[in-house]
């Protein structure tokens, strides 16, 4: 075997291994970022979708939709108007019904 063939036989596997390690680190970092951004919603989505990859795909899709929104900061007057003119929505339980404490403030 020539020197060139020996170098190729050594360098190619090393490059492949480094590429695989890099891809693995990238996937782990992306997963961790999703977990940190979505918190408990990450686990719920992964469970409800068809596996971890499908769940993460759904969360990335949500991120993209959110990034595509044209969100503008409200002026101080508008913030005050919305917070004082609209009652807070009733809190609901997991079954979707109003909890007793949300219907009657005196039971809290």
Helices and strands in order:
Layout: H1 3-38, H2 40-48, H3 52-68, H4 76-85, H5 100-103
Intertermini distance:
82 Å
Main sheet overview: none
Radius of gyration: 25 Å
Shape: elongated
Please provide the count of β strands: 0
Helix share of residues?
Answer: over 70%
Q: What is the overall pLDDT average?
A: 85
Helix-strand pattern? HHHHH
Q: Show unreliable segments.
A: none
Oligomer: single chain
Structural class: mainly alpha
Strand content: under 5%
DSSP helical segment count: 5
Give an overview of the whole structure.
- It is a single chain.
- The chain is mainly α and 108 residues long.
- The protein has a domain at 1-70.
- It is 70% helix and 0% strand.
- The protein contains five helices and no strands.
- The N and C termini lie far apart (82 Å).
- The mean pLDDT is 85.
Summarize the structure.
The chain has 108 residues and is an all-alpha fold.
Task: Fill in the keyword field for this structure.
mainly alpha, 5 helices, single chain, 108 residues
